[in-house]
Amino acid sequence: MKLVLASNNQGKLAELQAMFAPLGVELVRQGDLGVGEAEEPFRTFVENALTKARFASQHTGLPALADDAGMCVDAFGGLPGVDTAYYCTQFGYEKSDANNVRALLEQMQGVTNRRAAMVSTLVAVRSPQDPEPLIAVGRVVGEITTEPRGSNGFGFDPIMFIPEFGKTFAELPVEVKNAHSHRGRSAAQMLALMRERWF
């Protein structure tokens, strides 16, 4: 089965492709099918993911999978949340993972409550009008480090310290991270939902 991934993020594609391999699902990035990015006007992960999935399905005629994920920092009332990918741009930096990490560390200087959650909301639709989208949410709670550690992963992985492992996500082997990350957890739920309802 071919599923269009409503993202052009190579890191997400690689992670999700590995996780969905047991179902025999082939993920194809929407950009590889000539589809641009959907608008993301909403303030919740689930609304944005649903919008992206419907958009990708509408423009390709394929079932679609969308992920909206982000960092929710307790000290900032859950922000940056849905604005995670563009977090650094509000501080004058060009959009990039490295600049997001830099900006967050700068904003966290002197902040003692370093608790944060990484959240991944996956939404899958069979068609643009699917009345029963599959929705899976994965959440991992950790702490923001004071400096980047490790070279695996992407995004905020180098500064997201996971107490149960005593390491940042970027210090973990890829297969361990994938099994225990926010995206790993939402993907495991999504696989179960797809098996139950689609296959």
Automatic annotation (TrEMBL):
Superkingdom in the source lineage: Bacteria
Gene3D superfamilies associated with the record: 3.90.950.10
Binding site for substrate: S7, N8, N9, Q10, G11, K12, A69, F154, G155, F156, D157, K177, H182, R183
Cofactor or coenzyme needed: Mg(2+)
E.C. code: 3.6.1.66
Keywords for this protein: Hydrolase, Magnesium, Metal-binding, Nucleotide metabolism, Nucleotide-binding
Catalytic site: D68
Keyword hit for Nucleotide-binding: yes
Cofactor mode of binding and number, as noted: Binds 1 Mg(2+) ion per subunit.
Family the entry assigns: Belongs to the HAM1 NTPase family.
Name used for this protein in its record: dITP/XTP pyrophosphatase
Organism of provenance: Acidovorax temperans
